[in-house]
Design brief:
- The complex is a heterodimer.
- Chain A has a single domain, classed as Thiamin diphosphate (ThDP)-binding fold, Pyr/PP domains (Rossmann fold), CATH 3.40.50.
- In chain A, the strands form two sheets. A six-stranded parallel beta sheet of chain A has the order 2-1-3-4-8-7, sandwiched between helices. Chain A has a two-stranded antiparallel ribbon with strand order 5-6.
- Chain A contains eleven helices and eight strands.
- By secondary structure, chain A is α/β, with parallel strands linked by helices.
- Chain B is an alpha/beta fold.
- Chain B has twelve helices and 14 strands.
- Chain B has a seven-stranded mixed beta sheet with strand order 3-2-4-5-7-6-12, with helices on both faces. In chain B, strands 9-11-10-13-14 form a five-stranded mixed beta sheet, sandwiched between helices. Chain B has a two-stranded antiparallel sheet with strand order 1-8.
- In chain B, strand 6, helix 7 and strand 7 form a beta-alpha-beta unit.
- In chain B, helix 1 runs parallel beside helix 7, helix 3 packs parallel to helix 4 and helix 8 packs across helix 12.
- The chains are: A alpha/beta, B alpha/beta.
- At the A-B interface, helix 5 and helix 6 of A face helix 3, helix 4 and helix 5 of B.
């Protein structure tokens, strides 16, 4: 199994991906406070960026990603254009899905972020289908599906894990255990404390990782992706992380002990990695400052682009249900 | 043309599609090795002919089967999956309703989902309501899904081929009561466009509309009405989504009367949509109220006399026709 040696370029990328995701979503947090500024629900992955950055960096461009509600970091780490993402979040015509997805269903098929579902637990069966196609066409690529600890209770997740196990599909299941399913903590909604052990029931390797340690996530994702790519079937990663915001931006988190948030804040994946890179001499304070400025500019540009973009024509709502049928 | 059964015609369509396109694969519970040993079953012999890569027996796992179809279609394959009985489509319904039908739309038209779901349907084999429950109205109500329902062997082949090579998700309903019905079937690829109904009996006094096995109830009702001097025009709908509005409206405008026959529950059934269409777009032509001959809103009973009571009869069709043609 080939895990690339650490290079300053890779380490800088991991940090930069997390940084852009964080600044992008922090801007959404601010805009969500302005009445009427953003349509729909804002469901964010603040605090979980190391999972997105570490897993996505371990993939090849041909690998497929299936995402969920908290998709922004997955997409930005994959290289999606912040401008068209922000425009989509605002429901604008220039949005990456022409305004039909909104913030919740963002998908960028050109980047192989093939599908996003916000029906909790629906991602794994879809991803099993994509992984089947990869196996069927002998493409050598893998499919990664991100889902949460809440989704792990859905029957569809277990059906997909079983099918992937029986057919040895190249499917990497990444459970982002962020400690909360809505307002319910894991001990209330999950019969086991360690979700990764469920892999055993479907004859696949399952491992847990500190989901706030981006290098640890990257290493495990590279190892598990190599397993899937090698024709040995699916694998499960449980990335243990934390949902720093509420379920959505309208959720005041009144049910969370503030000490818990404070404790996880000290384990912030960005802070930790920044310190590590500084201590290791990989990046200088000036490098970090430059990256900070760059991320802030990208986010400001994205908001500006989205603000200046028009809404789609109302009647364009009728388009894109079906492909025009070919003449028979 | 060759004479064969409805099930053999479906089988021919699957064989042709598997031969024509490497992207076509067939998956479902027992589509390879079946508990049936009957050449009239649509997937009979496919595994032996095409092997386990193209013909895949799945776990008993309808959500995964439907998810397999959606995900593989997004990747450019043409999945043909089977849901064993119509009531089990509830287990697959999230993947069909929320994903197959919506993901293309939500992608802003960037993705395509050329998948086919074959589902066995029907009332009249004494299995009771968890194996007999026609849910076409649920599926037709969900945007993005197409639905066809052949009534004879030639259409079984042509509409299944049309569905497999259609660029969008299509549900093909197969009336199990018709699997052994014999008829002439064209050689080769006779794929049919979706969205076209067919007038199967011409008449001037009343339009009868049906699909699948109910078509034969309608035809028998038309024969009985003819004995009373009433000439019914009978339409085989063939495609419920898209609906051939022009064919239906043209007939209703000529006859001025409409009777709808189906084996799904009457309340909120597909026939209500047809009745509303006639009222909205051909009201001026109607000489009498629209009638629906359809089962009451009860689960399908298992006991033979009760199942017979549930199922629309030709006598009930003829009575409805005579009542509005008085």
């Amino acid at each position: 199994m080939n895990i690339p040696a650490w290079t300053p370029e890779l380490q800088a990328r991991l940090y930069q991906d997390m940084l852009l995701s964080r600044r992008f979503e922090e801007r959404i947090v601010e805009m969500a406070k302005e009445k009427g500024r953003l349509p729909g629900m804002q469901i964010l992955s603040v605090g979980q960026e190391a999972v997105a950055a570490g897993v996505v960096a371990a993939l090849t461009p041909r690998d497929v990603i299936v995402s969920n509600h908290r998709s922004h970091a997955h997409l930005l780490c994959r290289g999606a254009d912040p401008n068209t993402l922000m425009a989509e979040i605002m429901g604008k015509a220039t949005g990456v899905n022409a305004g039909k997805a909104g913030t919740l269903h963002l998908a960028v098929p050109q980047l192989n972020v093939l599908m996003t579902s916000t029906v909790v637990g629906a991602g794994p069966p879809l991803a099993a289908g994509a992984a089947f196609a990869q196996q069927y066409t002998r493409s050598g690529a893998v499919t990664v599906v991100f889902f949460g600890d809440g989704a792990a209770a859905e029957g569809s997740v277990h059906e997909a894990m079983n099918l992937a196990g029986v057919w040895k599909l190249p499917l990497l299941l990444v459970c982002e255990n962020n400690c909360w399913a809505g307002a319910q903590p894991c001990r209330v909604h999950c019969a086991v404390g360690d979700l990764s052990i469920r892999a055993a029931a479907y004859d696949m390797p399952g491992r847990a990782v500190d989901g706030n340690d981006v290098e640890a996530v990257y290493r495990l994702a590279a190892e598990m992706a190599a397993h899937c790519r090698g024709g040995r079937g699916p694998a499960l990663i449980e990335a243990r992380t934390y949902r720093m915001r509420g379920h959505g931006e309208s959720d005041p988190q009144h049910y969370v002990d503030p000490a818990e948030i404070a404790a996880w804040s000290r384990r912030c994946p960005l802070k930790r990695y920044r310190q590590k890179l500084l201590d290791g001499g990989v990046l200088s304070a000036a490098d970090l400052e430059r990256m900070e400025t760059g991320a802030m500019r990208k986010v400001a540009d994205a908001v500006d682009f989205a603000d200046r973009s028009p809404y789609p024509e109302a009647r364009a709502a009728l388009d894109d249900v079906w492909t025009a049928a070919p003449a028979l | 043309m060759t004479e064969m059964s409805f099930g053999q015609a479906l089988n021919q369509a699957l064989v042709l599609a598997l031969e024509a396109d490497e992207g076509v694969f067939v998956a479902g519970e027992g589509v390879g090795v079946s508990i049936h040993q009957d050449p009239n079953m649509p997937t009979h012999g496919l595994l032996e002919r095409f092997g386990p890569r193209r013909v895949r027996d799945t776990p008993v796992s309808e959500a995964a089967i439907a998810g397999l179809a959606v995900g593989a279609a997004a990747m450019g394959l043409r999945p043909v999956v089977e849901i064993m009985f119509f009531p089990f489509i509830t287990l697959a319904s999230d993947m069909l309703v929320n994903h197959a039908g919506k993901l293309r739309y939500m992608s802003g038209g960037q993705s395509r989902f050329p998948l086919t779901v074959r589902v066995k349907a029907g009332v009249g084999f004494g299995a009771g309501s968890q194996h007999s429950h026609n849910l076409e109205a649920w599926m037709a109500h969900s945007p993005g899904l197409k639905l066809v329902w052949p009534s004879n062997p030639a259409d079984a082949k042509g509409l299944l081929l049309g569905a497999i090579f259609d660029p969008d998700p299509v549900i093909v309903v197969e009336d199990m009561m018709l699997y052994w019905m014999r008829g002439q079937v064209p050689e080769g690829d006779n794929r049919q466009a979706l969205g076209r109904a067919r007038v199967v009996r011409a008449g001037t006094d009343c339009t009868l509309v049906a699909y699948g096995a109910a078509l034969y109830t309608a035809l028998e009702g038309a024969r009985m009405a003819a004995e009373a001097g009433i000439a019914c025009e009978v339409i085989d709908l063939r495609s419920l989504v898209p609906l051939d509005k022009a064919c239906l409206l043209d007939s209703v405008r000529r006859t001025g009367r409409l009777v709808i026959v189906h084996e799904a529950n009457r309340f909120c059934g597909y026939g209500a949509e047809l009745a509303a269409l006639a009222a909205e777009e051909a009201f001026e032509a109607l000489k009498a109220p629209v009638r629906r001959v359809a089962p009451p809103s009860i689960p399908v009973p298992a006991s033979p006399p009760q199942e017979g009571f549930f199922k629309p009869s030709a006598e009930a069709v003829a009575a409805a026709v005579k009542e509005i043609c008085r």
